[in-house]
Amino acid sequence: MRECNRFAIAMTHHAAQTLQDFGYRLTPQRTLVWDVLRRGTPHMSAEEVCGKVQEQFPHVNISTVYRTLELLVGLGLVRETRLGPTQRYFEVEEEVPHHHLVCDQCGSVTHVHDEDLGGLNAALSSEQGFVPRELTVFGRCRDCRDRSEP
Amino acid sequence: MRECNRFAIAMTHHAAQTLQDFGYRLTPQRTLVWDVLRRGTPHMSAEEVCGKVQEQFPHVNISTVYRTLELLVGLGLVRETRLGPTQRYFEVEEEVPHHHLVCDQCGSVTHVHDEDLGGLNAALSSEQGFVPRELTVFGRCRDCRDRSEP
DNA sequence: TTTGGTGCAAAGGCTTTGCAATAGA
DNA sequence: TCTATTGCAAAGCCTTTGCACCAAA
Question: Which of B103, B116, B138, B147 to mutate to test the interface with A (most CBs of A within 10 A)?
Fold first, then answer.
């Protein structure tokens, strides 16, 4: 796949280095998947990632995309989240932990930072001994509330 | 399916009434599914429900179980939750809203009541305009913490 | 050169659907 | 009776796997 070697520069040093540090090869396919995740909208499904990748190189197979996503998740470079009823979503792992608010009505997904959860972490730790890592909140977003209560 | 009419009494008045109020027929299959959900462990998958149902009546088909679960969820009698990586879980809808803590390590699922979330609801409402209905928290349970830090 | 990675095709779970037969109201 | 509901089988969707060929190091 010589013709897309030029895309290797798109993979940030960070991710490329991690791959190689662990003895994985830096292939164009992996670079493309990473690049798509970095540039694309957050919360992409495997099929969406594949579609974007194939816009650039149509012959990249979806099984390779799945294998690459699994690898990147395993290396902590990508985060996998279950938001809705059926699909898995993937997004670049960020430094600051964040959580997801999913609107039951319109399906929109927004982010909340760890510090904006009120006393949740403290409450769960002290009362249940449970240390939260990540959470998903289902409910009703502002827009949908405004729309129904004019 | 005359031979299991006697099980109809197992369906609480509440659920049976709701079904009939909406014009749905009270079939033995529906009664069995409801009964299994009420008696069984919380967080059963569709297949687990079907297995339990079939312990009593082996010829009940899994597609009927899926259709019944969908119906009961739609009527607000059963709650569907996505907890783990792959499966959907079903449980009887209760009066007091509760949420789920899922341990990344051992997979255990515990419940938290709405009042024990610290200031989460208030924080999300005021800062994001988002009104939470239900949440799932992934993290590390007490047992797993104790096990690794003796 | 060496072996990890890829494309392809097939299979695997879980879930849904079409349809004729059945049974609840 | 009349039509909602069921069982069965088949299809659908997303994801994984086996294998021969290819290419990164």
Answer: B138
CB-neighbour burial class of residue A42 (10 A; exposed 0-12, middle 13-18, buried 19+): middle
Q: For chain B, which residues lie within 8 Å of any Cβ of chain A, measuring from their own Cβ?
A: 82, 85, 88, 101, 103-104, 110, 112, 116-124, 127-142, 145
What kind of fold does domain A2-92 have according to CATH?
Arc Repressor Mutant, subunit A (1.10.10)
CB B136 to CB A136 under 8 A? yes
Query: Chain B residues with CB inside 8 Å of A120's CB?
Result: 117-120, 123, 137
The C-alpha atoms of residue A141 and residue A107 are separated, in whole angstroms, by: 9
pLDDT tens digits, one per residue of B43-92? 899 999 999 999 999 999 999 999 999 999 999 999 998 776 566 889 99
CATH homologous superfamily of B98-148: Ferric-uptake regulator, C-terminal dimerisarion domain (3.30.1490.190)
Residue B105 has a pLDDT of 82
For residues B36-50, one letter each, b for 16 or more C-beta atoms within 10 angstroms of the residue's C-beta and e for the rest, the string is bbeebebbbebebbb
Q: Domain spans of chain A?
A: 2-92, 98-148
